[in-house]
Specification:
The structure holds 3 protein chains of 3 kinds. By secondary structure, chain A is of the alpha/beta class. Chain A has a domain of 203 residues: Rossmann fold, CATH 3.40.50.300. In chain A, 31% of the residues lie in helices and 22% in strands. In chain A, strand 8, helix 8 and strand 9 form a beta-alpha-beta unit. The radius of gyration of chain A is 21 Å and the shape is globular. Chain B is mostly helical. In chain B, helix 5 packs across helix 10 and helix 12 runs antiparallel to helix 15. Chain B is globular and about 85 Å long. The N and C termini of chain B lie close together (8 Å). By secondary structure, chain C is mainly alpha-helical. Chain C is elongated and about 75 Å long. The two termini of chain C are 25 Å apart. The chains are: A alpha/beta, B mainly alpha, C mainly alpha. Chains B and C meet through helix 1, helix 6, helix 7, helix 12 and helix 13 of B and helix 6, helix 7, helix 10 and helix 12 of C.
Amino acid sequence: MSLLRVRNLHTRFATDRGDVRAVNGVSFDLEEGEILGLVGESGSGKSVTALSIMRLVPEPPGRISADSLAFDGRELLALSEAEMREERGSSMAMIFQDPMRSLNPVLTIGRQMTEVLRRHQKLDGAAAKRRAIELLETVGIPSAEKRLGAYPHQFSGGMRQRVMIAIALSCNPRLLIADEATTALDVTIQAQIVDLVKRLTRERGTSVIWISHDLGVVAGLCDKVNVMYAGNVVESGPIRELFHRPSHGYTLGLMGSTPRVDGTGVRRLTPIEGMPPSLIEPIPLCPFLPRCRVSIPACQTVSPERRDFGSDHWARCLADLKPGDRAP
Amino acid sequence: MWSYLGRRLIQVPLVLLVVSLMTFAITRATPGDPVTIMLGMQTSPEAAKAMREEFNLDRTLPEQYGLWIGKVLTGDLGRSMRLNDPVTTLIAERLPISLQLAFAGMLFALVVSIPLGVIAALRRNSWIDYFCTGYTVMGFALPNFGLALILIYVFSIKLDWLPITGIGSSEAEQGGLWKHYSPFIIPAVALGSLQTAMLTRLLRSSMIDVLSQDYMRTARAKGLLPSTIVIVHALKNAMIPFVTMAAVQFGYMIGVQVTIEYIFAVPGMGSAVLNAVVNRDFPVIQGFTLVIAVFFLLMNILADMMYALLDPRIRY
Amino acid sequence: MPSKMTDTRTRPLQFRGSLALAVQQFPRNRAATVGFVILFAICFAAAFAPWVAPYDPIQIKLSMKLKPPSFEHLMGTDHFGRDVFSRMLWGGRTSLSVGLLVVGFAFMLGVPLGLASGYFGGKVDNALMRLVDAFLTFPPLLLAVALVGLLGPDIKNVMLALGLVQAPILARMVRGSTLAVREDVYVTAARALGASPLRIVLSHLLRNMVSPIVVQLTVVFAAAVVSEASLSFLGFGTQPPAPSWGRDMSEARRFLADAPWMFLAPTSIIAVCVLSINFMGDGLRDALDPRAWRTRRSVGADA
């Protein structure tokens, strides 16, 4: 049984112009110990998907619905808010993009760490403190004991994110969600953080959902990738498969606009022209159609269904893309 | 931080100097001879001359100022022309009462503004939020003496629950808790009305701002209890500007008290200045104003200090 | 539907603080419009009090004293038998005209001060701000009481006192805006083109500070009306038997139990005035600040 089973997740926001369908029928599974990448541009619905799983979406104006949103066999949408609070921070944890803004500036790091331990693991003050020091050392922060009394603004960006990771992993969650966790960091620090996450989660068997718009980072970290566009998953598959044979116009576009270190020919980077569609109107055909460079005549009339390519790789695309195809 | 504090403290004497000059200028600019007012038109020229000499009114203006400032620096604020007591004694009598009243007003303001501001921010567009907005709007619109009259009419005259006079009276001193403190209630509420409005509005908007910050999302993602989230994470941030403003407002209150002291016959600083103005009692006007200004300045500095102390980003 | 979307996206970029656009925007805010209408009505009635008021406000008629509100006397009579409603109207003349005078005086004193301070900076700025600080250290009411009490209850003195109290706040604010706007690129550009300093100041800076200045002036107006009432209440402003809101409230104290309408009328009218001014000010602020224009944005998909 998968750790996380998402079936037909819909998240809408009520606005004065109509309902915005931020997540529009997303389904996927996440196994124990698996690292899943969620890739897409701003507005694709990847963050909202994550927030919906944690039920951190403000309702109103948001509304989450799904055929099934099962975590460890339990339907999350059936839980009360108090029950959800027990899960958050203990069995499921999340880290966010900007660690400076995600940490409370007037509370010490120690405080922000021990409060989770005291809340979920019922540790007393001294035990929580000891555990916090251990955790800081695990994420590679020197002089951990002294650091407990420091404030977020006294740390560097990379260190702050390490603290966030320490906080997230402190109660040994089954699931860790990282929402653009390295986007705000320097490139060299990014690599360190990614390595840290990989190591720690592999050690503990934690499942990870890694959200990013950066294919490069995803390639180095994830086992499986879901490519999202306009609130839908448009392609999904093991990382090698995806890179070997991108099977959706959008995925192709993403790869074409990402610099590749393997030097496959000296090619110009091709950005994806146009803007994402409005999420208010229901979209009858393929949502990527207006910007797609590999569309075929059938795309104008038929809505693409799921096409399977074996080994758990599928895409919602009518164009028959072959391995090695490039966007024209 | 201490260097900042040092710099602020250095500014104090400068500002006070200007304040003293201004007070002096105002009092001396008045038409009408204080001596004649004090002693009456029929007084003998000798008595008038003696008084003039005693209060240095026969010297030139710069001399008068210099003499006064000199004495001030040694702690001597002169004597009241009317009552013949040293000004410092009068201040010692009246300042505690004014402080008590200001304190009571501030207490009322805090008791109302903190819950109201927090709840209004948490439950936006609920009836509490609308009530809060309405309350603050009224607080700004209704002058404190107007509110005082309304409260007197409702609570003292019609309902007879609360007394009107009695602050600082001997009867109050000797009576029980109620006798002692009940006279403060209506004046405190009236006095604190503007402050309550300001502080509520400030806390509400501060909280709304804080609640939308990223670190609040992190706090929720940790599964913390709502009370922890609001009090430890949100309020601690929102209180910083609040505490600062509360300190400044407290300093302000002593000056604002005048109308309230007048209505309720409170023997405080404000009414003393009022009487002194009518009587052209220069030393009292100068001395009292100086003290009030000093108090206000000190509260301002205290407010700055508190801001620095409460916000770790400034402290380190 | 599509036309509505393009509407908000392609709204032409207007020069900040453009008055014409503000006038267009203002009526959208209902509270502000109501405030404006009420204020206008009060001002109008007050200005034309000699014709609008049903009775002579200072004529004593002891046989009619302390009568509750009735058809003949809309707000009742006071302890001298005078019609309270008429006194309200006439009192408005004093209070509102003082308010406007104070606004003018504070403007003429505070704005140049703030501009000079902000534009020239350095020693000038320091000196002027020390002066402003000193003024602000005075409890405003006490300062006004001292000035009016000592100089005499002339309307000139009241205006002077209240104006002196309000000007520093305005100056501070103008200074702040000036400092902000001064750094704007286009001022440097104008300088590069050879525009003289005075010209820069007047045309560029002022035009962009219209919004905060206008809003602050409404605050000054409200504060002045209340201060005038406070002064009169304490006995320092308008002298009897001239009608005055503050003064009437003071006299009403003796008759609180028997004739509550005596204090309710002036109290309410002051509150209504201040409320109207505040609402109007809020409306003006929203109308004049292009950033406050609500562009219809849907909640972001990526939270």
